[in-house]
Amino acid sequence: xxxxxxxxxxxxTEIPQLGFGVFQVPDDETTTAVAHALEAGYRSVDTxxxxxxxxxxxxxxxxxxxxxxxxxxxTKLWNAxxxxxxxxxxxxxxxAKLGLDHVDLYLIHWPTPARDLYVDTWKAIETLVxxxxxxxxxxxxxxxxxxxxxxxxxxxxxxxNQIELHPALQQRExxxxxxxxxxxxxxxxxxxxxxxxxxxxxxxxxxxxxxSPAQVVLRWHLQLxxxxxxxxxxxxxxxxxxxxxGPGFVLSDDxxxxxxxxxxxxxxxxxxxxLN
Length: 276
Ligand code: NDP
Hints:
By secondary structure, this protein is of the alpha/beta class. Helix content is 40%, strand content 13%.
């Protein structure tokens, strides 16, 4: 079984550098997928209220017998629930569906800037942290302006910003801002939902190492210091995606540079400035 290294967050909590995403997995299939992932050695699971599969994640965690303290569970507050009181209510609902008494990471899913509620929402999350029901608070899809506004209005610095990031969208400006504030960069759609896997430069590196294109892309993320949460419902791919920590599998500086050259500003998901 692969050993996944951890990254230390700004509150001292350790997050596994590679976890398991369940976006677009129906609730009943989620239980099986998460069970495969736990069997393969994943200990971190990334869900969200809007995915409709928190209950499926919870069932898999409960059935696994893996001690709670070895698990790292992330969920996210949906846009329609932003605002102080509605955040507290939505969090209770997520926790009940997961069947847990706390989550390890709670994220504001999108800033939805036109609604202008993320500062109030963050205050509610501060309360949940003080109550011990959220171990670590973070955000998702925050662009630099949203992040700066939050930093100016609260002493609680988000531990994580989970953003779309892959070889075709490398997010240099955000990664630099995160580094300045000790915010960990977590990459969603780390494989660009498969869109970068046929790239000839990635295929060439994969052939050289005897690895798959997905493994090369994940290795690139890990060497940049990103936390990654690849999704798959395919048992062979679930195992393949965590098999990236062997001592012989390190991309050279040249290989890292050839992946760095693939940035083309390709968003596979919405633009956070306009999603409201
Ligand atoms: P990924 O980049 O993880 O790609 C998933 C797709 O790639 C699936 O179609 C999967 O197919 C396929 N795949 C997985 N592994 C391999 C492999 N080894 N070889 C070939 N194909 C592979 O996309 P996601 O959008 O799911 O992102 C990952 C996670 O990030 C999500 O599940 C979610 O938890 C999170 N996320 C967060 C967002 C946010 O707004 N905060 C937005 C989007 C995602 P199959 O399953 O059929 O095997």
